[in-house]
Write a structure and sequence with these properties.
Blueprint: H1 18-21, H2 30-45, H3 52-63, H4 66-76, E1 82-84, H5 96-106, E2 109-111, E3 114-115, H6 117-123, H7 126-131, H8 141-146, H9 149-159, E4 164-165, H10 166-170, H11 178-182, E5 185-188, H12 191-202, H13 210-217, H14 237-254, H15 259-264, H16 273-292, H17 296-303, H18 309-321, H19 325-337, H20 342-358, E6 377-382, H21 391-402, E7 406-410, H22 414-423, H23 425-428, H24 452-455, H25 457-464, H26 475-487, H27 502-511, H28 514-526, E8 538-542, E9 552-558, H29 566-577, E10 582-588, H30 590-593
Parallel strand pairs: 6-10, 9-10
Antiparallel strand pairs: 1-5, 2-5, 3-4, 7-8, 8-9
């Protein structure tokens, strides 16, 4: 790129601001500026990891005319790798042929590639496809006129088997598709290299070039987190290769590729913790697919090295499906002794009676009786059925009318997750190694890792300290409101901005004791990914303390035929243990309410 263009600083900054990284949309070449900034960022931060081909690409790209740079970036950002010349129209780039010439000379664009009939049919219109077909006994003029594109593509493949150049396919096109014979087809050959550079910038391939545009439009805003050379996503070349291989394997698995073929292409386990988490997740998904096709040993091989808590449950089930009852029971007892999560502990507890029976063993008596679970308050509410109204909203309206001095909100997971996210903002967005790689992250990359909270324990302790001051202190209220104002609209994995208002936060913090928040947030920290869901649907605030001595209550709504899910049950039990007012409201319709 010309040295006079786009003098944006792209070296390792003290704080990366996404709003200043993205180019203004008023610039007709904003997409080129964004690509150039990404390229320069990667060249600086990963200078030691780039190979000769990538270094040459950066150098050659910067030396290209602006029109050629812009054309390449436009094609990189489009779907696929094949483009008809007649469908490439960008007024700001001038003559496309002039811009394409240097790209063709470098080999970054190919021209007139060979392709089969199916690929060709995706690039041309139905009338154009019809014009390439000759009439036969089975493919009459009437059939040509009425057939859909897949049928026409099959017919073309039968008439002209194999791959042919685009010009050979289309050279004989007649009216009304004569322009097809004059068209040219470009193939983008540099895409794999560009994808690798995008991966190095984002640390993933699910974020793409639209991220820059959405940020500039104001649809997304990201917290500026200090980024240094040590906060890179990748530390060696093999990390990048592993990340690419994992992405390709997952795409293949989701596309229906046989699991044994995907397993054969799986890379070795990486050493980077965030990349190891992706590896574990893919092995888990691969194991599930092996289960579905009945390959139990391959499923066990996938589950065994996985650090995912659910992998232990899957191993037990595979042993059970394989009629290896003794092995299933032995593993279940091992997991019960040291469960990786409370969810797994609950599932194993439910499985054990069945496993003991299948193994022909008597279940040993526990050394002591398990602590009796506290009762969960319930009520039944008869309402008229309104087909177009969610049952939660119907209960909300009823409760609002039932007690005019109270206010009921349908917030489900939004309130407590948001309060946690705001109070613990500094800990969540702390610039720890392996957490933040680029300016467009909505949260830390290690959020799903088992050691997410442990790595930040001192930071979380400091954030939660105001809650330990007791009911008399309003310190946490001031902190949460101030952070709501300061960070409003900024992407966060915990904060539901659309569900919040300052008035709602103020009311919630006035009614919910800090000790209750402390208990809830500590449980969330035990497993941030799992425990930010399962909260009751409704929360009701009272202007004054009610008869139960509380200024709020949580209400889980269950319509006819609905039942509590495990994660909801666990939260309700937790609330009962800690004196947090929560109940279940079972809704019945008039016909059902007559039953005893």
């Amino acid at each position: 790129m010309d040295s006079t263009q786009d003098q944006t600083h792209v070296g390792p900054p003290t704080a990366a601001a996404s709003s200043t990284f993205a180019a203004p949309l008023a610039d007709p070449l904003y997409y080129l500026r964004n690509f150039g900034r990404l390229l320069a960022w990667v060249a600086v931060r990963y200078d030691d990891l780039l190979n000769d081909t990538e270094r040459a690409f950066v150098s050659d790209f910067n030396a290209l005319p602006e029109a050629s740079q812009g054309l390449l970036v436009r094609l990189v950002m489009r779907r696929g790798a094949l483009f008809r010349r007649s469908r490439i129209t960008y007024p700001e780039l001038g003559d496309i042929g002039v811009g394409a010439a240097p790209l063709l000379a470098l080999g970054w664009l190919g021209e007139d590639p060979e392709l089969d009939a199916e690929t060709l049919s995706a690039l041309i219109t139905r009338p154009e496809l019809q014009s390439l077909l000759a009439e036969t006994d089975t493919l009459t003029k009437a059939t040509l006129r009425q057939a859909r594109k897949p049928v026409l593509a099959d017919a073309l493949a039968a008439q002209r088997p194999g791959d042919h150049r685009f010009s050979d396919w289309c050279g004989a096109a007649g009216a009304p598709a004569a322009s097809l014979a004059r068209d040219r087809l470009f193939s983008l050959t540099i895409m794999p290299l560009c994808e690798r550079l995008r991966l190095m910038f984002f640390g993933n391939l699910y974020q793409d070039w639209s991220t820059f545009v959405l940020t500039e439009l104001g649809h997304q805003r990201f917290e500026p987190v200090p980024l240094t050379q040590d906060s890179r996503a990748f530390t060696c070349r093999s990390d990048i290769d592993t990340a690419l291989a994992l992405h390709q394997c997952r795409e293949s698995l989701e596309a229906g590729t046989a699991p044994e073929d995907v397993a054969a292409r799986m890379p070795p386990a990486p050493t980077l913790s965030w990349l190891q988490a992706r590896h574990d997740r893919l092995r888990y998904l691969l194991g599930r697919q092996f289960e579905r096709v009945g390959n139990h040993q391959a499923a066990l091989d996938c589950y065994h090295p996985s650090a995912l808590p659910d992998a232990a449950i899957r191993r037990i089930r595979v042993y059970e499906q394989s009629d290896a009852a003794d092995a299933a029971l032995a593993l279940a007892c091992e997991v019960q002794a040291q469960p990786p999560s409370e969810e797994v502990a609950l599932q194993v507890r439910r499985m054990l009676p069945r496993l003991y029976r299948k193994a022909g063993q008597s279940r040993p008596s526990p050394e002591k009786e398990a602590q009796e679970e506290p009762a969960i308050a319930t009520r039944t509410l008869a309402l008229d059925q309104t087909p177009d109204t969610r049952v939660e909203l119907a209960v909300q309206a009823h409760l609002d009318a039932e007690m005019p001095g109270s206010r009921v909100y349908y917030l489900e997971n939004a309130l407590f997750s948001s309060l946690f996210g705001l109070l613990c903002w500094p800990a969540i967005f702390a610039p720890l190694p392996g957490a933040f790689f680029h300016p467009f992250q909505s949260g830390p990359a290690d959020l799903r890792h088992n050691d997410f909270a442990r790595r930040r324990q001192a930071l979380f302790d400091a954030c939660l300290a105001p809650l330990a001051s007791g009911q008399a202190s309003d310190e946490h209220r001031g902190i949460i409101i101030e952070r709501y104002r300061k960070h409003h609209g900024t992407q966060s994995p915990f904060v539901y901005w659309g569900a919040l208002s300052e008035a709602l936060l103020d009311e919630a913090l006035a009614c919910i004791p800090p000790t209750h928040l402390q208990h809830i947030f500590q449980r969330m920290l035990a497993s941030p990914e799992r425990h930010r869901s399962g909260f009751p649907d409704l929360i009701r605030f009272f202007a004054e303390e009610n008869r139960q001595g509380s200024r709020y209550e949580l209400i889980e709504v269950k319509g006819p035929g609905d039942r509590l899910q495990d994660h909801q049950q666990r939260w309700l039990t937790f609330f009962a243990h800690h004196g947090i007012p929560a109940s279940v409201c079972h809704v019945v319709f008039p016909a059902e309410s007559q039953q005893p």
